[in-house]
């Protein structure tokens, strides 16, 4: 049983499992080397081999008790046909929000578009490096995803004054995201 499962299932807290969110990323020189040759962040997230390799980098370097799959919460808007780009020194920029276009996105096309992420999860979970370790996935909360999709950039950069006034759009989008 992995340290995390042992802690949760058996309530055994003699060992504190260690993992970090965002444990794979720019602080690692091996990640920066991959990133240097892969400028498009979305394409990097959709490359199952590189995503798996990046996920496992902190396990190789630090021996954490779990790996966190290399991806991004904005893969959901991407899967729903909203354009998503990451600009250096700015962060994410999302395209115009078309609720009609999003409503036309069916489960099959959504799954097909994000299939490389599923493959990366499968590939990573088979790694010998994860023997007696867990693989953690993540997703943004519906409200967080909604704010990014409507704001078309990180809410850290501010929200328009009347951002929350379009109750119809907010409700429609939340119903789809949830």
From TrEMBL:
SUPFAM superfamilies: UROD/MetE-like
Entries under PROSITE patterns matching the protein: UROD_1
Gene Ontology biological process terms, A to Z: heme biosynthetic process
Record-annotated Uroporphyrinogen decarboxylase (URO-D) domain positions: 17-26
Annotated Pfam families: URO-D
Record-level GO cellular component terms: cytosol
GO MF annotation, one: uroporphyrinogen decarboxylase activity
InterPro entries to which the protein is assigned, alphabetical: UROD/MetE-like_sf, Uroporphyrinogen_deCOase
Name of protein: Uroporphyrinogen decarboxylase (URO-D) domain-containing protein
Organism expressing this protein natively: marine metagenome
């Amino acid at each position: 049983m992995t340290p995390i499962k042992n802690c949760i299932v058996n309530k055994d807290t003699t060992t504190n499992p260690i993992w970090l969110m965002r444990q794979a990323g720019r602080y690692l020189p091996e990640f920066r080397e991959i990133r240097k040759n892969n400028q498009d962040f979305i394409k990097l997230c959709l490359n199952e081999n590189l995503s798996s390799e990046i996920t496992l980098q902190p396990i190789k370097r630090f021996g954490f008790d779990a790996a966190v799959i290399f991806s991004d919460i904005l893969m959901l808007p991407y899967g729903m046909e909203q354009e998503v780009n990451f600009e250096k020194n700015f962060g994410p920029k999302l395209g115009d929000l078309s609720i009609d276009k999003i409503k036309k996105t069916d489960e099959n096309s959504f799954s097909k578009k994000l299939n490389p992420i599923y493959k990366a999860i499968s590939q990573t979970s088979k790694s010998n490096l994860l023997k007696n370790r867990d693989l953690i996935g993540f997703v943004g909360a519906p409200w967080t995803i909604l704010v990014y999709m409507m704001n078309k950039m990180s809410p850290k950069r501010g929200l328009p004054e009347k951002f929350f006034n379009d109750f119809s759009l907010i409700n429609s989008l939340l119903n789809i995201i949830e």
